[in-house]
Design brief:
- This protein has two domains: 121 residues, P-loop containing nucleotide triphosphate hydrolases (Rossmann fold), CATH 3.40.50.300; 80 residues, no CATH class.
- It starts with 5 loop residues before the first strand and ends with a strand.
- The protein has a six-stranded mixed sheet, sandwiched between helices.
- It is α/β, with parallel strands linked by helices.
- A hairpin with a 2-residue loop joins β2 and β3.
- α2 packs parallel to α5.
């Protein structure tokens, strides 16, 4: 039996004296395409930062499958723009952070940088300063950096907020290819379920009182969504395509 990708045992997230959700107890399987959904202030980013080891849990424990490698994409406005690094410098950081696993920075990884630049259509921006890029270009560079060391799980915090509209479809195409070619999972935070509903197979819905987690068909129900959001929600299906409507 395959062990779960991630196990949470009575995990409480938030800040001292201000927990953001009731204790979380669940398992997430490997190979998942997970959407972490919820309104502003419900704790989506806090949950992810806790699972990445960036925020300490208030109580309880969490455990990734042994040896799981992670790639994290913060929102582009969260990155310090004072440091004068080029796009290539940024991508090299993505390789250097994994040197204990990958070995020395070799010609192979220089080729990997070239491949990622081509994949994200950024070769012409190679020597540009990161801080001089547009918001959408920075977001593409951050996703490229997270993917360059071939992590087993990619975690993205609302990438659509800054990503160029012309590149949004391209991002999902890239992730679909990686899913087919490699052992790969992804988790994406978004406040709009409709925006990612056709790209995920699991949902972590951070509601006002509790967290709902499960395969998409189990969560994509009017009763579940209405309880989570605290207002009437209707799920419409037409020709296998779903749309969530707030009534």
């Amino acid at each position: 039996m395959t062990s779960p990708l991630l196990t949470l045992k009575d995990l409480e997230i938030g800040y001292p004296g201000r927990p953001l959700a009731s204790p979380l107890r669940f398992e997430i399987p490997a190979g998942v395409r997970l959407g972490i959904i919820g309104g502003n202030g419900t704790g989506k980013t806090t949950l992810v930062r806790t699972l990445l080891g960036l925020n300490p849990p208030l109580k309880g424990t969490y455990a990734w499958q042994n040896g799981t490698t992670l790639g994290y994409v913060p929102q582009e406005h969260q990155v310090d723009l004072l440091f004068p690094m080029t796009v290539e410098d940024l991508l090299k950081m993505g390789v250097l952070q994994d040197l204990p696993r990958l070995g020395k920075l070799s010609e192979t990884f220089q080729k990997r940088i070239d491949q990622v630049l081509d994949l994200f259509e950024m070769r012409s921006m190679r020597w540009k300063l990161f801080r001089n890029l547009s918001g959408g270009q920075r977001q593409r560079a951050l996703i490229a950096r997270a993917l360059i060391s071939r992590p087993e799980v990619l975690v993205m915090d609302e990438p659509h907020n800054s990503l160029d509209s012309s590149f949004r479809g391209k991002l999902w195409q890239i992730l679909e290819v990686l899913t087919r070619e490699e052992s790969f999972s992804w988790m994406v935070i978004d406040h709009d379920l409709n925006r990612i509903i056709h790209h995920i197979n699991w949902v972590c819905l951070v509601g006002q009182q509790r967290v709902f987690l499960g395969p998409l068909p189990e969560i994509l129900k009017g009763t579940v969504l209405s309880e989570a959001y605290g207002e009437p929600v209707h799920v419409h299906e037409e020709n296998g395509r779903f749309q969530v409507h707030f009534l």
